[in-house]
Amino acid sequence: MSYLMSNYAPLAVTFTKGEGCYLTDTQGEKYLDALSGVGVVGLGHCHKDITATIQTQAGELLHTSNWYHIAHQETLAEKLCKLSNMDNAFFGNSGAEANEAAIKIARLHGHANNIDNPTILTANQSFHGRTMATLSATGNDKVQAGFAPLVSEFIHIDFNDVDAIKAHTSNNNIVAIMLEPIQGESGVIIPKRDYLNQVQAICQANNWLLILDEVQTGIGRTGKMFAHQYNHITPDVLTLAKGLGNGVPIGACLAKGKAATLFTPGTHGSTFGGNPLVCKTALSVLEIIEKDKLLDNATKMGEYLVSNFQEKLSNSNKMTQIRAKGLMIAIELNQDCTQLLNAALSKHLLINITGRSIRLLPPLIINQTEADIIIDTVCDLIGEL
Q1: Catalytic residue among 90, 91, 127, 154
Q2: Residue 1's pLDDT is what?
Q3: Is 296 an active-site residue?
Q4: Which pLDDT value is given to residue 16?
Q5: First to last CA, the chain
Q6: pTM for the complete prediction?
Q7: Nearest CA among 73, 105, 83, 69 for reference residue 253
Q8: N or C: which end of the chain has fewer CB within 10 A?
Q9: Helix axis angle, 294-312 to 276-291, nearest 10°
C-alpha cells in the first residue's frame, strides 16, 4: 500500500543515484536518461559544480523571505534580464507559478487600460501548468477534465494560425496572447518560421502583451538560450523554469517595458520564491552553460540525432515525421505508441510518449556515444512495433 495520492502512475523502477546522462536504480542497473527529468536536468544528474554550489550555499544560508534583500536573487535577475533583453524579474518555485505571475501581469495591464474583463488568447494543445489559472489557460481538455468551473477570460485559438488571432482584434477585452514558442507537451509542435514575429506585430498594433512561455524551451533546450531568439524578437513577458535550476525548484517571470511596471508592493509574492539556495544554483547553471558552450552542443547533437534518425528510419513504414529544434525532438509514428514507454524502459532508456510521438529531451551535455545509444535503441523500438 502506498500513502501517496494516486495522481501519478509511475513506472516500475526506483532510481537512487544519478551521474551525467545516466540514472541507477535500486538493483544497480543503469539507464540512459533521454528525457532529462522532463527537460529539467540539462546539465545532467549530479553535476559536480552544481552539487558543490548547493552544498556551499546550504552551509551559508537557505532562506530569509522576500521581506529582505537577497543578494543572489538580485544577481540572478540581472543575469537573466541581460541575457533576454528584459527589464526585471519575479521568482517563484515552478513554471506554473511563473505563468500565474504572467497572467496576473496581463490582467493588471488590462485594468490599467480600463478593461473590466481582461481576456487572454492562448493556443489549443498548449500546456501552461496545473494550477487553476494555468490549466484554464492550457488548451487541452484532458488537463482540464473534472476541474470546472475553470478560471474565466481565456480564449483558445489554433496554434500557428495568425488569422485565428486576427479574428479577435475587434474584441476590446483582449489584453495579451500567451504562447509557447514550441509546444512541448503536445509533441514538439514547431510553428512557421515567422509566426512569432507576426504575432508580436499584432500585439503591438493592439496594445496587447506578448507572453512567451519558455518553461520548457528556455535555458538552452533548443540551441539558443531562449527559443524566441531564433525570431530576433523580445516579448513583453517571458516565463522560465525547468532547466534553470537543474533539479532545484525555481521559476522566473521576466517583464519588459509597460509590463515591467505593473507589479507593485503587495500585488504578488512567494514565500519560498527566489531564496538564496535556488538563485545561487541557477547562477551556477547559467555559468556552466556559457563556460562549457552547451548551446553549441545542443545544436550540434540535435542535428546529429535528427540526421541519423532520418537516415535509419528513411525506409520505415511507421515513421511519418521528425520535428526538432536543438535537443527538443519528436518522432511521429502512424500509430499509437504508448507501449514503447515500458519497452524503452526494458532497454534501459528513458523516453516520453505523446500520443503517436516519441519525445526526446536529452541533457545538453550529451555526447555522440550517448546519442548513438538513443538512436539505435529508439530505431529498434520502432522496428519492433
Answers
A1: 127
A2: 78
A3: no
A4: 98
A5: 34
A6: 0.97
A7: 105
A8: N
A9: 70
| Active-site annotation holds for 127 | yes
How far, in Å, CA of 127 to CA of 130, rounded? 9
Residue found by looking up cell 524566441 in the block: 228
Could you report the average pLDDT of every consecutive run of 10 residues in the chain (385 residues)? Answer: 92 97 98 98 98 98 97 98 98 98 98 97 97 96 94 97 98 98 97 98 98 98 98 98 98 98 97 98 98 98 98 95 98 95 98 96 98 98 94
Q: Is the peptide bond before 149 cis (omega within 30 degrees of 0)?
A: yes
> Which residue(s) pair with 357 in the sheet?
332, 354
Catalytic residue among 90, 236, 242, 325: 242
What's residue 329's pLDDT? 98
- Catalytic site includes residue 163: no
Q: What burial letters (b/e) apply to 280-319, b meaning 16+ CB within 10 Å?
A: bbbbbbbebbeeeebbebbbbbbebbbebbeebbeebeeb
User: Which listed residue (159, 213, 224, 280) is catalytic?
Assistant: 213
Q: How many CB atoms lie within 10 A of CB 125?
A: 17
